[in-house]
Automatic annotation (TrEMBL):
Its main location: cytoplasm. Belongs to the CoaE family. Gene3D superfamilies: P-loop containing nucleotide triphosphate hydrolases (3.40.50.300). It comes from Vreelandella songnenensis. This is Dephospho-CoA kinase. The gene is coaE. Pfam families: CoaE (PF01121). InterPro entries: Depp_CoAkinase (IPR001977), P-loop_NTPase (IPR027417). GO terms for molecular function: ATP binding; dephospho-CoA kinase activity. It catalyses: 3'-dephospho-CoA + ATP = ADP + CoA + H(+). Keywords: ATP-binding, Coenzyme A biosynthesis, Cytoplasm, Kinase, Nucleotide-binding, Transferase.
Amino acid sequence: MIIGLTGGIGSGKSTVASTFEALGAGWVDADHVAREIVQPGEPALALIIDYFGENIAKPDGTLDRAALRERVFSDSAQRLWLESVTHPRIRERLTDQLAALSRRAPYVLLVSPLLFESGQDALVERTLVVDVPTELQLSRTLARDGVSEEQVHAILAAQLPREQRLAKADDVVDNSGDQAHMRRQVERLDSFYRTL
């Protein structure tokens, strides 16, 4: 069984996924896979450099993610082009990794900030949204990522609005409280998922 775990930026998806992992679940992070497919030597990186120019790469040949983020979040056409190159490659790797984990765990989480937006929800049987108020998303992201408030708002604008994400959820974890509050919700869901 594959559960799609999503939430807006700064909602605590990785923390929730790690809590499930401590209970025996497996998980694959779409963001990690997205970084893998643009490593030096990967076809996607070559296409990105051809499209955006050499200045989108750092001197060591790795992708300048900050420069790319600035370009694509200020121009939706460029973001759509980037997604057309990366999303199919991400989906293929995710499918392989999920299949491998499914053989070893009672259920597997596909952790993806763009679960619904990218169509990755087609890979899962259930969806779980990690939810926090928008103000908390903003403050957590600013503290964690060292990006501007303008960039955080651009990222939020590219993600499904909170209300729509919640409407698509089969399950919700409210991650606006303390760790113990979150852990109790995860433990309850873990018990439920094992019965499915």
